[in-house]
Backbone:
């Protein structure tokens, strides 16, 4: 049976998705659409992908029972340790897969956008691994606030191009990547999240699905049941949430919680809580929910976390939100910082600022002692040290 | 009525179209720019609806759009401005914007306003063919609005033929794989592409745009098409020289 959470032939999840692209990009997107499923499902791809995930990325990522965090909140809390992946986040699952797809299609030049720099680093890493040319577009503002990742990308041989238009963050980096792609149709756009024109959202979700695939057998081993009660993940574009939810979307008994960045507060005017502030519209080639004014001009979002500072959300998430399948919560900058410090102190794990948003909803939930919760620990916090240190001094 | 198609019946070569951004350089300049262009006898005018995230546009149109938005332009103001010249302006207008603007404004409300302003042709570069077939074709036909499709050097023949059958005003032939903005020269590769399309003997009129900036590129493009569109070069000109020297710019293109 086909899941209702799979896109239809035009790339729609419910009424969200599609491929709203200028004619200039049509051949590129069509080529990918015609080939991606066949490539992903081929034995050759699966063999290489699995082997790289195991030996290069270091998968499976552990499912760790967070004892002290569980005691504190009165639940059974497990952390899916994507932060332990090579390059420090879930992003590498997708880039390893897409670089194999790019090679299969005979592409030798890779472009990518990045917000926090994790996807940029993960892309630069697989390009170094395969000896391919790599150009990463990054908002000028993000280049400043995520400097360690910029240095890593450069060391890995990538060219980092600042996006200087608009809010100078992830949205604008994506615009610049798309404009470059229009002008260089021979390049492969290695997109970092479940956003963009069909088939990108579906392709990225399939490549991140390894997260929930592992969760199933890991939970079975640890709890005797492959289903948890609740899965919590942060959402910017939504790739780590898509991966953590993927194999559970049809299991209605598993509660799915997506956490957006509220910035200074949902109604402060400085927020990135798209599901609360957005309406239906088109961004980066996809019909989804996005933050916009009454004339459809895209509103500049805000979050302390560069990876969540995005005015839209992937079309799958728009569908999960509208259908009520996933519950959307949010956390402010301050709540995320507090949650990051808490996890560090009681579990010895420094999470990424993005990930800290997922942890920050624990105090807002009514939990049962036997409730099994998996929090997708999407990335580590090394890149955010400067922001943490500033907060520590306050 | 099909005002754009009429132009090609009167004149089927060297048709000159100018694109400009509504509300730029100043909020109230929209109608003045149109009047100046009419005085300079351009054949038709594309009114750009400023958008925050214009994916197909280069730096010049990005900047003019951003400035127009800072000036306070919005769709209601543009439609009000166009209404004021509806009875005096004789040069056909085409609206060019991005799909999200129409979607958020309300599709029917948008179409009604377009018609009220005496306009019958729109260009929405991010409206894909499949969405047109599934929904927008019917919507536009209800209002008598014609949609202009783009073709590019990568568009395959089968798709061009389909676009030709859907086109009721003209086909917008994108001159190269690029976003909008001046390139200076037209390459041999582009000429090969122009020749390839010309030899297809399409029923639709062909207008070349993207990278057409001066007399040389305009006349070269016109050798292979019914006309050409100039956008970024015109915007750069009015930004530098103001809107009352538009006649000079148009003369330099026509070289008369």
Residues:
């Amino acid at each position: 049976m086909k899941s209702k959470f799979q896109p239809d032939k035009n790339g729609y999840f419910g009424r969200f998705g599609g491929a709203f692209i200028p004619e200039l990009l049509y051949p590129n997107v069509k080529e990918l659409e015609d080939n991606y499923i066949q490539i992903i499902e081929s034995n050759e791809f699966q063999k290489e992908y699995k082997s790289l995930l195991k030996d290069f990325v270091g998968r499976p990522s552990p499912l760790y029972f967070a004892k002290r965090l569980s005691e504190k909140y009165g639940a059974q809390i497990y952390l899916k340790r994507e932060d332990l992946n090579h390059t420090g986040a879930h992003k590498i699952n997708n880039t390893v897969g897409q670089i194999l797809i790019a090679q299969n299609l005979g592409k030798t030049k890779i472009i990518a956008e990045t917000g926090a720099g994790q996807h940029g680093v993960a892309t630069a890493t697989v390009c170094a691994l395969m000896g391919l040319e790599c150009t990463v577009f990054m908002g000028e503002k993000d280049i400043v606030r995520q400097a360690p990742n910029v240095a890593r990308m450069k060391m890995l041989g990538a060219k980092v191009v600042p996006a200087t238009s608009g809010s100078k963050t992830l949205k604008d980096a994506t615009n610049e990547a798309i404009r470059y792609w229009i002008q260089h149709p021979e390049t492969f756009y290695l997109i970092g999240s479940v956003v963009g024109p069909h088939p990108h959202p579906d392709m990225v979700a399939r490549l991140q699905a390894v997260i929930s695939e592992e969760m199933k057998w890991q939970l079975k081993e640890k709890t005797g049941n492959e289903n948890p009660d609740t899965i919590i993940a942060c959402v910017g574009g939504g790739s780590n949430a898509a991966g953590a939810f993927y194999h559970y979307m049809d299991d209605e008994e598993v509660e799915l919680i997506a956490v957006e960045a509220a910035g200074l507060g949902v109604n402060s005017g400085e927020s990135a809580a798209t599901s609360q502030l957005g309406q239906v519209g088109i961004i980066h080639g996809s019909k989804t929910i996005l933050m916009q004014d009454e004339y459809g001009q895209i509103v500049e979002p805000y979050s302390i976390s560069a990876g969540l500072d995005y005015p839209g959300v992937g079309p799958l998430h728009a569908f999960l939100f509208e259908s009520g399948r996933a519950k959307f919560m949010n956390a402010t900058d301050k709540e995320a910082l507090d949650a990051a410090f808490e996890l560090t102190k009681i579990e010895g794990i420094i999470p990424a600022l993005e990930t800290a948003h997922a942890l920050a909803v624990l105090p807002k939930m009514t939990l049962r002692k036997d409730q099994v919760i998996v929090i997708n620990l999407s990335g580590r916090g090394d890149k955010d040290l400067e922001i943490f240190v500033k907060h520590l001094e306050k | 009525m099909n005002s754009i198609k009429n132009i090609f019946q009167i004149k089927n070569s060297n048709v000159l179209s100018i694109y400009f951004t509504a509300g730029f350089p100043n909020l109230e300049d929209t109608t003045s720019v149109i009047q100046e262009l009419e005085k300079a006898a351009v054949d038709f005018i594309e009114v750009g609806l400023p958008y925050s995230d214009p994916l197909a546009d280069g730096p010049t149109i990005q900047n003019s759009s951003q400035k127009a938005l800072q000036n306070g332009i919005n769709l209601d103001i543009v439609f009000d401005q166009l209404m004021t010249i509806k009875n005096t302006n004789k040069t056909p207008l085409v609206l060019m914007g991005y799909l999200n603007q129409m979607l958020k404004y309300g599709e029917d409300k948008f179409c009604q306003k377009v018609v009220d302003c005496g306009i019958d042709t729109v260009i929405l570069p991010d409206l894909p063919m499949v969405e047109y077939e599934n929904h927008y074709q019917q919507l536009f036909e209800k209002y008598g609005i014609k949609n202009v499709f783009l073709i590019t050097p990568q568009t395959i023949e089968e798709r061009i033929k389909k676009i030709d059958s859907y086109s009721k005003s003209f086909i917008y032939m994108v001159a190269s794989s690029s976003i909008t903005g001046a390139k200076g020269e037209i390459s041999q590769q582009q000429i090969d592409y122009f020749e390839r399309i010309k030899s297809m003997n399409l029923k639709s009129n062909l207008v070349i745009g993207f990278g057409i900036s001066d007399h040389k590129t305009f006349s070269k493009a016109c050798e292979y098409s019914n006309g050409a569109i100039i956008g970024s070069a015109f915007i750069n000109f009015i930004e530098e020289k103001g809107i009352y020297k538009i006649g000079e710019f148009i003369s330099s293109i026509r070289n008369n």
